[in-house]
Automatic annotation (TrEMBL):
InterPro entries: AB_hydrolase, AB_hydrolase_1, AB_hydrolase_fold. One of its GO terms (molecular function) is triacylglycerol lipase activity. This is Alpha/beta hydrolase. The keyword Cell inner membrane does not apply. Keywords: Hydrolase. GO terms for biological process: glycerolipid catabolic process. Residues 42-266 form the AB hydrolase-1 domain.
Amino acid sequence: MSVDAPTIVASADGTSIASYRAGTGPVVILVDAALSTHEQSRRLGALLEPRFTVVRYDRRGRAGSGDVAPGAADPAREVEDLAAVITANGGSAILFGSSSGAALALEAAAHLGDRVAGLVLYEPPFIVDDSRPPVPRDLPERIASEVVAGRRGRALALFLREAMSIPAVGVAAMRLTSNWAAGKRLVHTLGYDFAALAGTQDGRPLPRERWGGITARGVVMAGERSEPFFHDAARALSELLPRITYRSLEGGHHGSAVMSPGGIAAVFDELWASPTASA
């Protein structure tokens, strides 16, 4: 069972990062998606804890973590945050990332070398072809402007409609749920998600040189029920990184990492917890 008392570590710029550790075994750090805190990793963490030391943490500016430079949205700062969490938990870790969290995990692996011992990536939302429209280039600025003006609901609606392609009727329905208030509380952090995804949202091939330093082995997955562009992105990434293999998650969808993570947990067991798992 997860222990909810956080450990606070200091990132390189002095930002306080809250993390939550439980379990025993190889260290796994869970990197959440946009508009999420460590709470969204609770189910996956609980499945992994019997065989892994699981560290859930709040990304910069979210929940228990601070941000000494709000609005700067530099992915290098989030890599430094992950480096601090890794250091506080033995010096190396397997990283799991979902959606934009997968993009951040890739950035960390590219910059932190063998401190990242493995990668499990779920649906990095890269747009590598015409299987979905590109994200408008000015969307991050428009969302930031709405946040500065105090119109967090409008900012959230922009993200859901133009980045996630949720129809207007779906956004209207979300306004009636508790997720809407939670999203409004975190909408100011979307700049970090857009920064981690920069250069991957316009329908062009992935930048081959961007992750050239990655040596970790692992898996990139897309859910069987998810939109085709997630699968196109996962395949394209596996073609760039020879130690990262592509899989389709049976029955999976974009929310599987939060709602039904059993198939994702099984991949960790296969690669790192089973007696036959290879280095």
